[in-house]
Amino acid sequence: MNVSEVMVRYLKAAGIGHVFGYPGDPNIEFMEAARRAGMQFVLGRREGTAGLMAEAYGFLTGRPGVCMSTLGPGSSNLVNAVANAWLDRVPMIALSGQIERKREQTFTHQVLDHNRLFSPVSKWTTHVAPDTVAGVMRKALRTAVAERPGPVHITTHADVVGAEAKDAVVSLPPLASMGFGGDTDVARRLHKAKRPVILAGIAAQRANAHSVLARLAEVAGIPVVVAPMAKGVLAEDHAYYAGTLDMACNALMWDFLKGCDLLLAVGFDAVELIKPWTLSVPTVHIDAVPNTDQIYSADTELVGDIAAILGGIAAVWKGEPRWTAAAVKRHREALRAAYYAGRVKGRLNPTDVIDAVREALPREAIATSDVGSHKLLVGQGWSAYEPRSVLMSNGLSSMGYSLPAAIVAQLLNPGRPVVCFVGDGGLAMVQGELRLASSLGLGLLVVVFCDGSLNRIEIKQSKRKYPSWGTLFEPTDIERLAQSMGCEGAMVDSAAPLQRLLARKRPQGRPLVIGARIDPAQYTQQF
Ligand SMILES: Cc1ncc(C[n+]2csc(CCOP(=O)(O)OP(=O)(O)O)c2C)c(N)n1
Ligand SMILES: [Mg+2]
């Protein structure tokens, strides 16, 4: 199939039988694909009115109205109709041809920047390519009809429309969510499943779904994997806690998910995904918003108050737990063993640091983590027991986050221990804020993973057999840095003094900054 044929298959699968438009050169392959597929082409007398016909089609049927124009003057003529659908809240797929990709940036005749032209009046502006066309069509159709509905604009380049599609799987997502009662259907499916798993993300935490999540996991016996920013949404000593996704021990976690026969994605936001989604298990999307990202495909969507939806499933659950607590425990033990892989005996390993801090602090401690190799281990190894007790930036993943975040966590929770985990690179970006923390009198614990390296990047250089270049930097004397900022400081290079230091006292009235001179060998083994 060529790209146009894949596009047309998606439109037909969505029940769309008409294209309203006005053609130019770059549209010919698309029109031919539409003709062969038995679609009706309605030749308006200008693009603006053809677009309004598509809007009326969308209004009447609830399915996206499809309009089509050529590049340049055709696309600028189409803007008014797209803007109309935007403010009338009508689903629309607007297509505009474009010059070949290799000339788009430098050629000028008839070339307008469609993304800039349509973005103020579209829910999404994008283009198709041979290796993305099916994914783009799934996302475009789901986005156009999701509340509030509106237009998606897709540019179709002249060299793409006839090219062979490499992403040609035609699999239409549900274009509507299930209404009231859908939770009963999902409960039935859960009951039929042998190895269902819940993947809980940040929206579940935002919805305060933690208690009902625990209840559902218990009554139905479903292990819960959490996304990093949702750590604590299920206490990590709960019998059905099954690990954190896309941090250390990634391979083991993905294998665990691959082994399930029904996945409930509960408020899971794919913004936290580092690896592409490769699962093909039947998936139910439970969220406050429809699955418009289409990063994972879900055959069913339950959209609304996440806690209420989970409560509905738990309330109608009948039958035995799907997993025994013992089976989940075996998985957790394998996960823990993988987490310690690569430890070097007699050295201060990153996991030694995390363990020492976790053991020294009470359950209710709040932890913040920065970005880098250390985050991947903190993300898997730090045990969280309460919602919103772990703060990390895992969407933008910006270095320099954890110290400012810890300052605020301590400011808002004066009686609660707060620990900031940070790499030496990340600390260097924001270390001036240590002075703020001491002037505010915050008894923060700051733990710095000192390896003289932007390790996460250095590791990627070494994977390509490149030397470490631009990724190493001179050590900072953390003890003196801390003191000059009005904090207490210490440097450790083995586990025993770290444990002693943490046992001695909690920081009071000013931060305690501990530089942990780690051996990064464990990172190399792990990633
Ligand atoms: C603001 C910002 N700049 C650059 C990056 C890219 N980056 C991701 S991890 C990393 C290395 C971080 O080094 P460090 O803080 O020492 O942590 P380590 O990896 O050594 O544990 C870099 C440069 C980023 N995520 N954010
Ligand atoms: Mg570092």
Please tell me about this protein's structure:
The structure is a single chain. A six-stranded parallel sheet has the order 2-1-3-4-6-5, with helices on both faces. A six-stranded parallel sheet has the order 9-8-7-10-11-12. The protein contains 22 helices and 18 strands. Helix 4 (73-88) links the parallel strand 3 (65-69) and strand 4 (92-98). It is of the alpha/beta class. The chain is globular. It has helices at residues 3-13, 28-36, 47-61, 73-88, 101-104, 114-118, 133-145, 182-192, 202-206, 210-220, 250-258, 306-316, 325-339, 350-360, 373-381, 402-412, 424-430, 433-439, 455-463, 478-484, 495-504, 521-526, and strands at 18-21, 40-43, 65-69, 92-98, 124-127, 151-157, 196-200, 224-226, 241-244, 262-266, 283-287, 300-303, 366-369, 390-392, 418-423, 445-450, 488-492, 512-517. The protein is 40% helix and 17% strand. The model has no long low-confidence stretch (mean pLDDT 97). The site of magnesium ion has 9 residues, from helix 17.
